[in-house]
Design goal:
Layout lengths: L2 E10 L6 H10 L12 E10 L3 E10 L9 H5 L4 E7 L3 H17 L10 E6 L8 H11 L3 E4 L8 H14 L6 E2 L20 E3 L3
Parallel strand pairs: 1-3, 1-4, 4-5, 5-6
Antiparallel strand pairs: 1-7, 2-3, 6-8
Bound molecules: guanosine-5'-triphosphate and magnesium ion.
Amino acid sequence: MQRELLFKVLVIGDLGVGKTSIIKRYVHHIFSQHYRATIGVDFALKVLQWGHNIVIRLQLWDIAGQERYGNMTRVYYREAVGALVVFDITRASTFDAVLKWKDDLDSKVTLNHGRPIPAVLLANKADQATCQQPKLDAFCRENGFIGWFGTSAKDNTNIEEATRFLVEHILNNEESPLTEREPPSLVLSGYANATKQHLNCSSCSK
Ligand code: GTP
Ligand code: MG
């Protein structure tokens, strides 16, 4: 029998780092150079066939970078079970903001027993520069990220890999609230075959 799980995943990070672009690439397989700031929050749904028996409905919450200065994040974060925290590798200020986003996240949403929700760091725009792997490995260990990936929404690098990594952690997390739903009626948009190499990616939990 098919089991269906609903996971709410947050996508956060400063203005213009590429959150919307990453989601559009992942869900709709498109990319645009044109920047149009998200207002408030946007949503997207990705349905994944996970093995033979599990269907995962990934509800992606695309939170506007400017919301860090607002007071709505507590509402947006509610019942999330995972997060992608994005920065732009060409703009140092967006890396500095990562910890502000992580602190905001951890102070406003936790799993049962107060454990932080799993968060993956995305070093986006990897088509424009290279990441400093040792630095990011240490940063993740020190700041409670489960891992990081160098991503590019433009070149479609590592987005499926990073999301799959997060979903694996959510699934392994016995304490995450798993919401069972009716059997799926949507057409599945499962992962493409994972033939791409894991560029610049690292699990900091090893
Ligand atoms: P807010 O909605 O304001 O919080 O921004 P955002 O994080 O959603 O950024 P968005 O996805 O709108 O992207 C901002 C700009 O960066 C756009 O011009 C995108 O085309 C560009 N961009 C996003 N991802 C990449 C990438 O991987 N590589 C390159 N070269 N440009 C990117
Ligand atoms: Mg946006």
